[in-house]
Automatic annotation (TrEMBL):
Protein name (Swiss-Prot/TrEMBL): ATP synthase epsilon chain
Oligomeric and partner information: F-type ATPases have 2 components, CF(1) - the catalytic core - and CF(0) - the membrane proton channel. CF(1) has five subunits: alpha(3), beta(3), gamma(1), delta(1), epsilon(1). CF(0) has three main subunits: a, b and c.
Gene3D superfamilies: F0F1 ATP synthase delta/epsilon subunit, N-terminal
Record has Membrane as a keyword: yes
Occurrences of domain ATP synthase F1 complex delta/epsilon subunit N-terminal (ranges): 5-83
Protein keywords: ATP synthesis, Cell membrane, CF(1), Hydrogen ion transport, Hydrolase, Ion transport, Membrane, Transport
Superkingdom of the source species: Bacteria
Protein species of origin: Notoacmeibacter ruber
Length: 134
């Protein structure tokens, strides 16, 4: 029998998910990680990407654009800036974020800020091109 833990995905607009799950793949700022029951307490900022939730052998995915993940041994809570199921995601928001990142990248001369913006732009364009095709 597999162990389960509580997962919640919250956006400013709504509580998208609140249920018992087996695991959650989180698009952390430093790379994807899998949260499972008895996970060490972890707090991570999120990059644009997909959250994959597995429960009872089935998988669901959700698009997130930024936010934070709080993982505890018995729970995982994602507080997302923007979140939705892929079929319900507003592609205009993603396009707007890509354009904003490109504009800021063209305007900055700070190497550290340039590096951060390049990472953000990479995550956004990957999400747009591979996960949310037109």
């Amino acid at each position: 029998m597999s162990m389960a833990f509580t997962f919640e995905l919250v956006s400013p607009e709504s509580l998208l998910v609140s249920r018992e799950v087996d695991s959650v793949v989180v698009p952390g700022a430093d790379g994807d990680f899998t949260a499972m029951p008895n996970h060490a307490p972890t707090m991570s900022s999120l990059r644009a990407g997909m959250v994959t939730v597995e429960a009872g052998g089935s998988k669901e995915q959700y698009v997130v654009l930024g936010g934070f993940a709080d993982v505890q041994p018995d729970s995982c809570t994602i507080l997302a800036e923007t979140a939705a199921a892929p079929g319900e995601f507003d592609r205009d928001i993603l396009t707007s974020r890509i354009e904003e990142a490109r504009t800021r990248l063209g305007e900055t001369s700070d190497d550290e800020e340039r590096s951060e913006l390049e990472e953000v732009l990479g995550s956004l364009t990957t999400l747009h091109e591979h996960i949310l095709p037109a």
